[in-house]
Amino acid sequence: MTEQSFPPVEEQERVEEQAANTAQPRTGAWSRIGEVRNLGLVGVLIVLITIGGISQPDSFLTRNNLVTVLTQASAIGVITVGMTFVIIGGGIDLSVGSLMGLASVWATTQATQSMGTWAVIGVALLVGVGFGTINGVLIAYGGLVPFIATLAMLATAVGLAQKISNKQTQILNSAAINKLATNKIFGVPPLVWMFAGVAIVGWVVLNRTTYGRRTLALGGNPEAARLAGLNTRLHTVSLYALSGLCAGISAIMIASQTTSGSSTNGDGYELDAIAAVIIGGTLLAGGAGTLVGSVLGVLVFTTISNLLIQNNLQTEVQNIVTGVIIVLAVLLQRRSKEVRS
Amino acid sequence: MLGIVKDFPGVRALDGVDLEVRAGEVHCLVGQNGAGKSTFIKVLAGAHQPDAGSIRWNGEEVRFSSPLAALRHGVATIYQELDLVDGLSVAENIYLGHEVSAGGFTRRGTVRDYAEALLARLGHSEIPTTREVGRLSAAGKQIVSIARALSYDAQVIVMDEPSAVLAHDEVTNLFRVIRDLTDDGVAVVYISHRLDEVRQIGDRVTVLKDGHTVATALPARTVTTREIVTLMTGRDIEFPFPPRPQAASGARTEVLRVDGLSRHGEFENVSFSVAAGEIVGIAGLVGSGRSELLETVYGARRPSAGSVSFLGKRLRAGALPHAVATGMGLAPEERKSQALFMRESIATNMTAASLSRYSRFSFLNRRRELADANKLVRSLDLRPNDARRRVVTLSGGNQQKVVVGRWLMHGCRLLLLDEPTRGVDVGARAELYAIVRQLADSGVAVLLVSSEVPEVLGLADRVLVLRDGRIVHESPAQELDESGVLDLVMEGSAV
User: Fold this and answer.
1) Which of A116-125, A190-199, A304-313 has the lowest mean pLDDT?
2) Shortest Cα distance from A284 to chain B (angstroms)?
3) For domain B2-232, which CATH number applies: 3.40.50.300, 3.40.50.2300, 3.60.21.70, 3.60.9.10?
4) Burial tier of B96 (Cβ tally within 10 Å: 0-12, 13-18, 19+)
5) Which residues of chain B make contact with A28, given a CB cutoff of 8 A?
């Protein structure tokens, strides 16, 4: 007949919260650093760099190599920022990699290039936003599951890119765009600054604006968001358009790196981006996540592949290591979630 | 079952319930919402363990440690939300959990034969055993559930409001099935809100009120509605309702007008209005279309006919964001799944509908947001009184205050409340009532839906009674009493 015989979960949580609250003085800045998952990723990154420094003391910790790592992280980093928004909003976008390919091809056709650099940039961004919007409309108004809608877009965009380019690699003639990869500003290529810029803007939007707040609400509880008066359909469309925009920016970046547009540009990037978002601590179910985590996730993956290349390990090994890291990260995530509740 | 007691923290859900069921009888269980019927059924089904009391089975004391144990003893329960798997066939559903198999392979032929025999026994051999359950009607699903109960060789079948989802002739058919079962010596415990059904099918009646048995073994065929209603009402716990203001002099501005609103299969031709400063309560059973009506007014569902005018302007159907922007707010029925962002803070939840007020060029002013939320937390006496706390850590009553707080912050002109005190403890209830009355006094129009009749009568100024999707009565709250409303809600003869 005791009252404790059937404590509902809520009750337990409340008790624990109160217990945690007695130790309150330590909250504030310290508890926010204690976004434990990100701290873990920083730890992983430090470990990786240490391993690199020890195993390849001559080449890994050189300025050149670190710049290479950052440059490699840039294009994928930008689409990861868009992906973070989509996943926090409760969706997924499998089409970003192929949209990158399509945007790079469309932007480097002779017709586009003949109109100059701004046309190349404009077309890449428009293709990204346009096809992203189609994704969003199919999902929000057509009622398609995000996985299916964007999977269909993946196939369609690859096909379209192949058709436009005749499966040929198109050379990018714009010197200005090519310089994004070759120039240096404060020691790093403009590409890296673009990534940094997109990440910072993304962080501000996610954490400091109504748009970010609404994205979290939509992913956390779509029905509650709708009943609170949020135009959830429009917001969903905007999320996929945003992801498409990031794919467009990324297409320019990869075109600059390879000095070409090709339907194979960005091939498989969607999975790398999703992996980075997930190990960055964003819930695949939506409603919670951090951009800092996603950026760290991208850096971890890029560093690993760089390390493996430096140590002359094959891409097969890279793939295996990537798989293992995703599993470990998600297990860790679940653990830390259990600890919290 | 004797003296069954079940405690939940802070609430004694069952406080001495007795029930004796004889072989071959239909024993009806009635009681208001919150009387403890559902909890009692769960104890009977082995889903909850009683904290005191005993269950005797054929004279021997037994413990139903799990639903399976209850089933093995021969007690099968058919819940309101039928627990069938839509994607599986009829035969597979009937034998779900005790598949007939040989060496790990299901013996589909045998299962089909058994299932056909069971359906034939129920007089429903026309249901194909290979059909997917998802494609059956509600009545068909119910028959499958009963067949499943029989497949366990059940001696007692508990049915929780089986008629709620059925049309009239389907109910007649269900009763025929029940009679066949009782003729075979199976006992049926029948839970229903409809007293006419109780009289029609029942042998004996047990009445629950506030978690205990107030009458048992009444003869079902001769007992009067008045008698049962009297037993069900007159609660022990009186909630302190805030006083109504003196009847407002002169006409108050009409805030909401609903005209001929209909939605197929949910409600029909509903018309009413709500004035500024007025609380209008809608009483009705679960399934009478209350929540659907509220959500349609709000724009979350599209009506099939009729119109909603808010502040003198006709609202476009399904234009929810517009309704909110012009000053409507809804505290929905399911707090957790429909209203709250459980991972987020109290402040975030409170400002969810008025974000634009806390932003410039869409940049959030989080300091002002938190300050205002904290102000509201104090004025609502929310505990803990820190708006940074996550709502998942709050009790039901405090969570509900957060939901109401969202619309206070938004400054709405019309507040729609759906079951505002479900799962809320007594103390917080009184506070919520006071908050709602205060809101109304400040000029907000309130439309309240509740399955607890005393709540509607105590809080509302005017009461609408909804039955089977139609308004069957409308009058000032003072002119009605609990048994009068229950009569209207359950019987329908008093129209």
Assistant:
1) A304-313
2) 15
3) 3.40.50.300
4) middle
5) none
